[in-house]
Every structure is written in structure tokens, then in C-alpha cells.
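User: quick one
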Amino acid sequence: MFRLQGSKVLAVDMTGDAVKAKNGSMVAYDGQMTFKKLSGGGEGIRGMVTRRITGEQMTVMEVKGHGTCWFADRAAEINLVGLQGDKLYVESSNLLVTDAGLRTGTTFTGLRGASQGNGLFTTTVEGHGQAAILSDGPAVVLRVSPQYPLTVDPGAYIAHQGGGLRQSFQSGVTFRTFLGEGGGEAFQIRFEGEGLVYVQPSERETIAGDV
Amino acid sequence: MGFREINSKMVEAALQPGQRLYSQRGAMLAYRGEVSFTPNLQGGQGGFLSMVGRRVAGEATPLMTVEGRGTVLFGHGGHHVQVIELTGDTLYVEADRLLAFEGTLEQGTMFMGSQGGVMGMVRGQVTGQGLFTTTLRGRGAVAVMAHGGVFEVPITPQRPVHVDPQAYVAHHGDVRNRLSAALGWREMVGRGSGEAFQLELSGSGAVYVQASEEKL
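Assistant: Done. Structure below.
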């Protein structure tokens, strides 16, 4: 149902079913489609409170109909992720389309989120189905296993998948950093356990990049 | 002649004496052989009247005439380039998206308001494309620029296509287009899906859509 057309366009064939998509990301469609705004952080009062508190303002629309709908966002690369009951953690700005059957929610990330320049909360996607995530340049998927932990630049991190993945925040700040002699890699995220991490070949503007 | 795609952002044209092509001024990247580039004040063919028409229409992107014998590389601003072959039909495209086109094509300007009346004018404003668009008709190749990659969606009488006005690049064929507005109360109270306006293209032909909602 999700089909990549080139690396920057996602085509979704629909037969009366629905997907959730980033607001305004539709570029074309044929057949009959309706677009309805939803809000992130879950539905109902609890979702609304979550959104207010977390500032994770995910503006999502539900696209429903018969035909093909094409999605794209600022010429960013698109990566397909299959979920079989596991959980995907991704920045809401990097989430393009999910199957309507997948649940989306918000989770606390703490210091790691702040170092990414994305705030303290991130979006979770859970269930069975497909999701399409965005990256600046083609992303690589790196496997983390107990023998092989992984350390990632916060600005290049886009998503991770797998409940068995622990993450910790590393700081390499020394007295040299304060003298302006830092290597520009003062903060990192370390992943341990079992899972997948998506990394883009580009670095967002982060506080970490400056120190 | 035609254009050969070197990569997603560059095309090459092979020129023979007697052939001519037009390109956006400054879009030449490199050339081999004896090739001359002359500024084209008229902005294409069509004589004085069409020049006035284009000035008024604001579709006066400076063009240059390219003639001679050799090969020329074109590219501009790191934009993606899509080559479209015309076989007697008409291509509708914004002047600033034109990278280069063969001299065999006949250039003109079309008043967008003439399709769809008042909505046609509104469409120009919504899409940020103004009220006029450039037309190219005949047989030959056109290189068009876009932000991100371009994909082609066929339009058939059974399957009209809706396009986000910001992602629309060009279309060709016997196609009617009109702006459809899905303005409901949700849009008024700021609960819109962000897809309030769409270009509806019906008839037979094809529309080119870019993988981005940013203008060039």
C-alpha cells in the first residue's frame, strides 16, 4: 500500500481505508479523497492535555478515500519503516505518513531531546503497519545489539525502533570546551540493547554543534 | 537535438548549425565547440506584440538564444531538472521554471483567468504564480526546473488529478484546470488540514508534480 516513487515521493494506494499524514504534505491525488485535521498526542481530553504540556504539536490529518495519494515534504528523503507490534520513536517533524491503524503518542526524552534541538518530548508510533519517516539526505539504518552499542550525533539522529533499546546521554564537555577548544562533538546519544537506529547524513542545528 | 540528462540537476544539449535553443540567462554551466549566447530582449519569439504581452504579464524571465556547433551543459541553482518531450501538444509552465527549450517550439503567454473565470484569477494568487503562464507548443524538448524530484501523473477523462498548488510544476495536453476550494468551517476556525486549495486537472494529458511545497 505504501510505495516509494523515487526517493522523495510516497505514493499510497487506498481503497476506502485511511492514513494519517503530516499536515499539508499531500502534493497530488487522483480519485476521491477527503482531508480531515487530527491532533497529535492522542485523541480526547488526555491527548489535548498532553499536547499542551509537551509542546509536541503534531498536526496530523486523516486522509481517506479511493485512489492514489502522493505525499512529499520539502524534497526530503523518505524511508519506509515496517512495524510488527514494536514501537518507533521519531520526532514529529520527521514523521510523514502512518497507517491509520498505528497508534501515535508522546514520550519524554529528557536531556537527549534538548540536545537535539527538538524539545524534551518525542513522538511514538506503535502497532502493526507501515510508517514513512523523513530525513535530510538518504538515511542509514544501524543495528544495535548487546555486543555492539552505538553512539550517535544528536543532530544526525532521526528515529529509533525497538523496545529493547536503552539510550543514554553522553557529554564530552571538558575544560577545553569552555576555552573554545571543543571538537564540536560535545554531546552524543548512546544506544545499548537491541534495536534499530535511523541516522541521516546531515546535522540539524543543535546546541551541541556549537560546543 | 533534445536534451540528455547528465544527472538529476544537469542536462546537455548537442547543437548543430541552423538549430537554435533558448535558455534562461545565466543557466549555461559549460560548453564545448563554437557556441554563441546572445541575450534575447524579446524573451523568445513572437515579435514585439508578444514582448509587450509578456512584460504586462510579468512573464518576462530573461532568456538567451544559444546557437552554433557543439554541446552545452545547463543547470541552475541546484534545482532538479526534468526533460519533457512535446509531440505537437502544448505545455503550460511558469516562465521562471524554464531552464531551456528547443527553438522549434512556439512560445506564448496565456491569461490564466480565461480558464475558470474569477476562480482562475484566484488560482493565480493562491499558487503565487500570477495571472499569466507561459505556453510552449509544437515538437521538441523542454527542460523544466523543480525543487526536489519531479514525478508525472497521467490525466485521463476517467481519472482527474488534484494537485497541491505549491507542488504543481507544469502540465501538458488537452487539460482543463480549475481551483477547487475545500473551505469549510474547519478552515475558518483554524482547524484545517492544510489542504484547503487544490488544482483540479481534467481532460487528457499529464501533470508534473514536485516533491516539495516550496517555490523555486
